[in-house]
Amino acid sequence: MPAMQTQSAPLPPAGSLDLSHLYQHCLFRSDAQVDSHDQVARELSDHDLRWRHGAVDTAMYKAGMRRMEMFVLRYGAEVEVRPRPFKDFALVHLSLRGGAEIEADGVRVSIPQGRTALIAPRKSIRMWWERGSEQFILKVPHSLLRECDASSPGELNLPSAALMSTPHEGPWRSLVQSLVHTTALPNGSQAHGVWVDHFERNVALFLRTHSGMGADPSTSVVTRSPHQAISISESSAYARLDAMEAYMRRRLAAPLALVDLAQAAGVSIRTLTMLCQRHRGASPMELLRTMRLDAVRAHLQSDANASVTTCALEYGFGHLGRFSAYYRERFGELPSETGLRRH
């Protein structure tokens, strides 16, 4: 549905939602990368997860209705997430804190704090979450979306990714608030179940009706047709960065220079530096250092007999003082404190 052209009142902040009941249902909290990955994959979708800047501080809260599920999720650190395409559900993201960016089937959408996006990829999806980003996520089964529209029950032509227009955000917030309140009500009676079914269908009908999710002209969104490929230069940039990062992972313990990374990506040093700054927000050597720090931390957390000095040297940190400073900046603690927490 095209975005309405009428003026609308400023949206209330996402934090104005009362999610206190949902926050009472903490599914898990973790500062470990592997555990965070496994837990989120179990609830939402199998995915690859790349940790960027910041300390891991994952928390997931969950409440279910009858067919829908709602979550609040944060990673703490900046992350890149590459889920498998969703087979039988769509997700609705409301950015409670910080922002996120979604690229699905060639459509790229930014979700600023306080805004909402529908995500229903068919072929490919990747997400970037800012450090400290916290998202309200509604998981909606395709079967429910099909049932809610009797005029075309078998068809489900949802956009791969689309930002909700500002005029629709207010009614959507009201629905979200009611959803949360509904999960707090006692559900022992048959009448309650019928009422919840009706309510879920209304929510699905709202999404189905407004699935075009036309964005406001003022919103920073880059859109393409779901069937239109990403431009060659953009696709090539991601492929070259992926090649560089795969090369880094295979040689974390080997001496590496900037020229080695450029050769692995198949570009000049200058071009590689530009690509890394544009798409990763850091220089190539900073990305390598971050990857090595993550490897050291994983080693310290998994091996009770691990030596901090040995781990640092093994992963290319020849200056232990600088290593400790880098480690503390990324994880908020010294490497020796990681070992103490493990014990």
Computed Rg: 22 Å
Provide the succession of SSEs. Answer: HEHEEEEEEEEEEHEHHHHHHHHH
Structural class, judged by helices and strands? alpha+beta
Biggest sheet overview: 7 strands, antiparallel
Describe this protein's structure.
This protein has 2 domains: 14-209, Jelly Rolls, CATH 2.60.120.10; 232-342, Homeodomain-like (Arc Repressor Mutant, subunit A, Orthogonal Bundle). It contains 12 helices and 12 strands. It has helices at 20-23, 33-43, 142-147, 166-183, 190-209, 232-250, 258-265, 269-280, 284-302, 308-314, 320-331, 335-342, and strands spanning 26-30, 47-51, 58-64, 69-74, 79-83, 89-97, 100-104, 107-111, 116-119, 125-129, 134-141, 161-163. A 7-stranded antiparallel β-sheet has the order 1-3-4-11-6-9-12, with helices on both faces. It has a 5-stranded antiparallel β-sheet with strand order 2-5-10-7-8, with helices on one face. A hairpin with a 2-residue loop joins β7 (100-104) and β8 (107-111). α4 (166-183) packs antiparallel against α5 (190-209), α6 (232-250) packs across α7 and α9 (284-302) runs parallel beside α12.
